[in-house]
Amino acid sequence: MPDPGTEYIRYLQEAGCDPGVIAHCVVVHDVAIRITDRIIQAGRVPVDRDLVEAGALLHDIGRSQTHGMDHADVGGNICRELGLSPHICRIIETHIGAGLTGMERRAFGLSGDDRIPESLEEKIVAHADNLVKGTRVISRADLELAIRKFPYGVRRRFLTLTDELETLAGSEFP
Fold it and tell me: Model-level pTM?
């Protein structure tokens, strides 16, 4: 049986993602799986590792068509057309930052739907993406510096997400 990761990378390639986007998705996947495994080892809550793997590898599939803020919506639509799980589509649609409220989305010209990660798997992929700039993994301190430019409420959402996952894992990431 083929490795599902290979199948997801093939989806990225067939969608037309450039090699840089694919490399980024692979690093986000690696970070997301490390976070997932630490949470599983801590034994506090169950995590669907296969769902994290799929969501992390496919989170930027929408960049095959746009590099704008709508890439998450486009990616969710691509994955629905591929017949993938609604859970995977939701991970992709909520992965930007620590999620976007309807008001924040409208400011970017998107629909007013809230896209805040709710499931643990959604939160893990969003956070892993926050910890990867290109293909470089950054520290929590670097993340805190990077988000200083955002309004307080957005910064608070990033840090709340970080704190929640670190508490579940029992340590700081990456």
Answer: 0.95
